[in-house]
């Protein structure tokens, strides 16, 4: 049912107060655009279209024996205009009556906010059989919708058919495209054919006519698209890539539809990993400007990204990549268990800005650097719960060497309500820049870790997990934060505390 749900913007007016009277200050301040009678949810209603909201109140029909002509009853309802995303004339068509059918009224398509950051689409029917009456109202609603300039009109869609269980094509055509069509958004879809396809496509393709790019897939696809948009922005602005002190922001906003085995980016942006919520944020033009990191080594830019793990996190991903034939969740759980069985500390030097008190040469089991909260089902409060999408800093979480049971205890805390950082071997810092210099030998380490299997740590270097993608770096990696460098479609996160925990990997 449309009305009265917690948190949505379809609200009740004060009992008995007529439209525009002094008891309704918000209505007084608002210019009335149209007023008329419609049937809403089988009740005759006096409906007022203001500049900000649509308000309606049930009325008693005219009495045959005279008396009150039009009496307002009960409390009224209202709908914020900014929650409407489409309007259509509602008609009944039949085979007997060819043509456009019998007019029934107007249907408004609206975005409803539910609990835990979830958005969903809904409808409100305004029933009136008069063509002239409905035409005036329909045109007014169209004009209002055209005034929402931040909403996209044309989108470039990138679809990774290999994400998760290969269901992203189905997810897009069944759940996303119908909503985009309803909102009148034009789309141009490319189904990526190989790893790196999105990167090369966004390097060359004409993006002039688009208001945004949307990626349907997991973190690997999302991060590749963000990296590609930022590379393109530097190229267009003639910025020297390898001394990237002040990169320019990406021109187009990026939308992320979660359809991968890990959807940390989409989850962090919307507070939930939910296809319809992500789609509604895109349709409504909700934009977040998000901090981005650059990863460079020996003065060369390796990539743009939002989060990274070195040590246990990097090695777990390197292992998972070796077992691609397994299902995504089995692969991840298996890799975590295998990496735990072979748990090895990393000898490395860490230096960061602003300077902290971390003893900068030590052995660490894992080092995480996160510019965004990194929410996911196994860490519902996030891997870096105190970091925001655009607070101009990154979280550095350094886990020093400890026993395996203590390390497992720390990992398990991510999925519980207990503080995962409350261990003597875990240190957290708020930083803007960090250099991580592994002092061991990657190949020697590889032999030790995998019992001689050279595939786990590639000869090209140490494995890093950057936004769920494997990055190899042989020497020091320099990570720098660039505040608000990219615009992403998403909402502000308010109600994330009660998310259900789903972790079975440890
Ligand atoms: N047609 C394709 N074939 C193979 N790989 C592809 C294809 N299209 C895109 N890719 C690559 O797949 C990688 C992973 O995809 P994505 O993150 O969307 O899915 P995922 O299920 O979350 O993957 P992962 O399990 O690796 O996290 C991306 O880096 C992307 O470059």
Ordered list of secondary-structure elements with their pairings:
Layout (H helix, E strand, L loop, with lengths): L10 E2 L12 H4 L3 E9 L2 E8 L2 E8 L10 E2 L4 E4 L3 E11 L2 E17 L5 E9 L3 H16 L7 E6 L8 H15 L3 E6 L5 H8 L7 E6 L1 H19 L16 E5 L5 H7 L4 H9 L3 E11 L2 E6 L1 E5 H11 L5 H14 L4 E8 L7 E10 L23 E7 L3 H10 L12 E6 L1 E6 L3 H9 L11 E5 L2 E5 L3 E13 L17
Parallel strand pairs: 10-11, 10-12, 12-13
Antiparallel strand pairs: 1-6, 2-3, 3-4, 4-5, 4-6, 7-8, 8-9, 14-15, 14-24, 16-18, 16-22, 17-18, 17-21, 18-19, 19-20, 21-24, 22-23
Helix pairs in contact: 3-7, 4-5, 8-9
Bound molecules: adenosine-5'-triphosphate (ATP).
Adenosine-5'-triphosphate binds next to helix 5.
GO biological process, one term: sphingolipid metabolic process
Protein name: Ceramide kinase-like
GO molecular function: lipid kinase activity
Q: State the total count of DSSP E strands.
A: 24
The CATH topology of the largest domain comes to Tumour Suppressor Smad4
What overall geometry do the principal axes of the alpha carbons give?
elongated
Q: How large a portion of the residues is in β-strands, by DSSP E?
A: 25-35%
Largest sheet: 11 strands, antiparallel
Domains, number: 3
Tell me the CATH architecture of the largest domain. Answer: Sandwich
InterPro entries: ATP-NAD_kinase_N, CERK_C, CERK_PH, Diacylglycerol_kinase_cat_dom, Lipid_Phosphate_FormReg, NAD/diacylglycerol_kinase_sf
Protein name: Ceramide kinase-like
Organism: Peromyscus maniculatus bairdii
Pfam family, one: PH_CERK
């Amino acid at each position: 049912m449309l009305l009265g749900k917690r948190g949505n913007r379809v609200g009740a007016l004060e009992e008995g107060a007529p439209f525009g009277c002094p008891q309704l200050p918000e209505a007084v301040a608002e210019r009335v655009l149209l007023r008329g009678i419609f049937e809403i949810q089988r009740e005759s209603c006096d409906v007022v279209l203001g500049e900000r909201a649509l308000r309606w109140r049930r009325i008693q029909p005219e009495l045959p024996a005279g008396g009150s002509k039009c009496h307002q009853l009960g409390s009224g309802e209202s709908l914020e205009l900014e929650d409407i995303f489409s309007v259509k004339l509602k008609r009944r068509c039949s085979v007997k009556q060819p043509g456009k059918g019998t007019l029934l009224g107007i249907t408004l398509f609206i975005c409803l906010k539910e609990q835990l950051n979830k958005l969903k689409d809904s409808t409100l029917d305004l029933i009136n059989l008069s063509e002239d009456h409905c035409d005036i109202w329909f045109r007014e609603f169209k004009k209002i919708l055209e005034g929402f300039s931040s909403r996209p009109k044309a989108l470039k869609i990138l679809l990774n058919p290999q994400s998760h269980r290969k269901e992203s094509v189905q997810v897009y055509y069944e759940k996303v495209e119908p909503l985009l069509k309803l909102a009148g958004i034009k789309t141009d879809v490319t189904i990526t054919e190989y790893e790196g396809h999105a990167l090369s496509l966004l390097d060359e393709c004409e993006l002039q006519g688009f208001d945004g790019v949307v990626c349907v897939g997991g973190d690997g696809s999302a991060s590749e698209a963000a990296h590609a948009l930022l590379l393109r922005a530097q190229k267009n602005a003639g910025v020297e890539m390898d001394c990237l002190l002040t990169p320019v922001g990406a021109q187009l906003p990026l939308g992320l539809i979660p359809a991968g085995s890990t959807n940390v980016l989409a989850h962090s942006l919307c507070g939930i990993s939910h296809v319809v919520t992500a789609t509604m944020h895109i349709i409504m033009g909700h934009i977040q400007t998000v901090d981005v990191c650059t990863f460079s080594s020996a003065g060369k830019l390796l990539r743009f990204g939002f989060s990274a793990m070195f040590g246990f996190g990097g090695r777990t991903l390197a292992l998972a990549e070796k077992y691609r034939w397994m299902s995504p969740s089995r692969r991840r759980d298996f890799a975590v268990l295998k990496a735990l069985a072979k748990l090895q500390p990393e000898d490395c030097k860490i230096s960061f800005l602003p300077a902290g008190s971390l003893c900068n040469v030590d052995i660490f089991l894992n080092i995480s650097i996160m510019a965004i909260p990194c929410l996911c089902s196994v860490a519902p409060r996030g891997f870096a719960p105190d970091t925001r999408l655009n607070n101009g800093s990154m979280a550095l979480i350094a886990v020093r060497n400890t026993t395996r049971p203590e390390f497992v205890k720390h990992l398990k805390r991510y999925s519980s309500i207990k503080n995962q950082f409350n261990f003597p071997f875990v240190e957290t810092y708020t930083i803007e820049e960090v250099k991580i210099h592994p002092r061991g030998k990657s190949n020697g380490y590889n032999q030790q870790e995998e019992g001689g299997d050279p595939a786990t740590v590639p000869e090209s270097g140490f494995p890093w997990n950057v936004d769920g993608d494997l990055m190899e770096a042989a020497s020091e990696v320099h990570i720098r934060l660039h505040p608000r460098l990219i615009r992403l479609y998403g909402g502000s996160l308010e109600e994330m505390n009660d998310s259900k925990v789903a972790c079975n990997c440890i």
